[in-house]
Amino acid sequence: MAPPNFTLSVATWGNPSSSKNALLIHGLTSVAQTWHRVARDLAGRGYYVLAPDLPGHGMAGSTQSFTIAALAEALAPLFSAPYPRFDLIIAHSLGAVTTLQLLHILPPFSQHPAAPVNSYTRVLLLDPPLYQSPRTVEMARTLFMQDVASPRSAAQHMSENPRWTLEDAAWKELGEQLITPETIDHLFKDNSNWSFVHLLKLRPATQRSVYLTVLGADPHLKDQKPSFRVEQAQPYLNPRLDSGIVWGATHGIHREFPEVVVEHALRRLDERNAVSSAGEQAKL
Asked: Which Gene3D superfamilies match (predicted)?
């Protein structure tokens, strides 16, 4: 159940009558339209694509609490009528951590009334910050507060991120303009103990209903610190959970390599030639 007075805001692409449905969940200081390239690609492949604004972001309502659990609770209505059953979920950064929390509070996807027999949902998480030390949390809070207090222009974003398109940069500029410093402050204070690696341990019934992959940014890029490290996932790896790295990618994987994100999201689990297995890093 959504928190009281919370209003969902959802962007869509593709044909609502499609039998294939995808859900895309953005990260901190972004908006639903940040997925425009991934969403258009999926829509072109026959998917009906939905992307919500996280609480306090874009045109969505706010919530009294900004814990990861509260964010997940706010998005939980997306998994019941009138919304469709999702074959595919792709989530980035804060949205990826929120998605992991959703996997713990929702019934297994295979129990959805519209789920075919022996069906599963493909879940792809992009560079989720599963653990941050108190010092790192405070540093991140300060940096994001600065970004929101003085939003960068689209031109600045493009200068800092040469792989982005103008549309990528414009949506990011809008995202920074629409979120408030109070939301940033509450989010980091409400999650001051930023430790979510344990969420990779799924309930057996949920584990059977998903194929979960976690992809991190390139740890070797100069001045870049990926949010996710593959060794975090190693204790939890199993035939339905794997991890890997997108070489050459910074934190904004879906903006820099949308084609890689789509390719990997639609790849069968047994075609993991480009993804790490048993904790090994493999090049995409």
From this structure: alpha/beta hydrolase (3.40.50.1820)
Domain boundaries, the chain: 10-133+194-266
State phi, psi for 216 to the nearest 5 degrees: -105, 165
Averaged pLDDT, 62-72: 95
3-state secondary structure the chain: CCCCCCCCCEEEECCCCCCEEEEEECCCCCCHHHHHHHHHHHHHCCEEEEEECCCCCCCCCCCCCCCHHHHHHHHHHHHCCCCCCCCEEEEECHHHHHHHHHHHHCCCHHHCCCCCCCCCEEEEEECCCCECCHHHHHHHHHHHHHHHHCCCCHHHHHHHCCCCCHHHHHHHHHHHHHCCHHHHHHHHHHCCCCECHHHHCCCHHHHHCEEEEEEECCCCCCCCCCCCCHHHHHHHCECCEEEEECCCCCCCHHHHCHHHHHHHHHCCCCCCCCCCCCCCCCEC
Percent of the chain with pLDDT strictly greater than 70? 92
Domain range 10-133+194-266, CATH architecture: 3-Layer(aba) Sandwich (3.40)
Interval 9-21: pLDDT, tens: 999 999 999 999 9
